[in-house]
Amino acid sequence: MYPFTFTKARTERAALAAGARGGRYVAGGTTLVDLMRETVERPTEVVDITALPYRDIAASPSGLRIGALARMAELAAHPTVITRFPVISQALNLSASPQLRNMATIGGNLMQRPRCLYFRDVTARCNRRAPGTGCAAIGGENRGHAVLGTSTRCVATHPSDLAVALVALDAVVLLRSPSGDRSVPVSRFIRLPGSTPDVEHDLRPGELIVGIEVPAGAHTARSGYLKVRDRQSYEFALVSAAVALDIRSGVVRDARVAVGGVATVPWRLPEVERALVGKAPGTRLWAEGSARAADGAKPLSGNAFKVELLTRTVERQLTAIGGVA
């Protein structure tokens, strides 16, 4: 670990000032501290923001507002989240370990860095860590890597389960800086690698995540998260699926489907959604819709199995949420 200055921000103003001079924000520290130990991250100043008032979880008829410093475990256990937004609660409970969920914050979860072994090996080529050096995963060990949203510069999957659920529900990130507030959909906040994989988030210098807003609807209560992985606990997804459906009078009125473990960002499936809306729910429809889940997939040498696994996972979760009638 390289030397750094540690600052504890007692006020929002102090935090923003520290961020403006290049300080790195830390709360739970479950990602940043690990990367500092591995010398992947080398900030010169770390700013503790845990004293800031961003821990509230507030529900209203129009939706859910989540403070950026709310802990993963707190949000997962919130009664309103369990009943009205079960896909969020389930995604959180399938993440990490109980110990990490008790420490990690919601804002920090969105700021996770890739779990690619080449990204975390400072001797390996990685365009995210060292732009212009190449991507060792493209021709190397890539079983766990992405088949969607890749580029010639990066094929690392996004690690967050929560972000997949938030993308499915059209959630918005609330940001604050000395120049004012702005909001960005989670689907745009986490950026595709393209030619600049080192730019992972739509976050301006010194900007601070203060919260997340999730709009409510008939689909949010009928939702759930499925995670397929090599082992049942403390493992990242090979494929995951967040599904939310509004089914009334024998017709699918609205469908939200997003997947994780297979793309460089939480990946929405609009073609699957369009195939479902306006039709009668049932086994046949779920199979027809899920057949579009892997459209555009570009498997690598070690992960072609993810194409079929993705289709099967989406179909399984559509059936679980929508039923077989």
TrEMBL record:
Matches recorded under Gene3D superfamilies: 3.30.465.10, CO dehydrogenase flavoprotein, C-terminal domain, Uridine Diphospho-n-acetylenolpyruvylglucosamine Reductase, domain 2
Keywords: Oxidoreductase
Superkingdom assignment: Bacteria
UniProt cross-references to Pfam families, sorted A to Z: CO_deh_flav_C, FAD_binding_5
Alphabetized InterPro entries for the sequence: CO_DH_flav_C (IPR005107), CO_DH_flav_C_dom_sf (IPR036683), Diverse_Substr_Oxidored (IPR051312), FAD-bd_PCMH (IPR016166), FAD-bd_PCMH-like_sf (IPR036318), FAD-bd_PCMH_sub1 (IPR016167), FAD-bd_PCMH_sub2 (IPR016169), Mopterin_DH_FAD-bd (IPR002346)
Signal peptide start-end: none
Sequence ranges assigned to domain FAD-binding PCMH-type in this UniProt record: 1-219
Entry-linked PANTHER family: OXIDOREDUCTASE, XANTHINE DEHYDROGENASE SUBUNIT C-RELATED
Annotated protein name in UniProt: FAD binding domain-containing protein
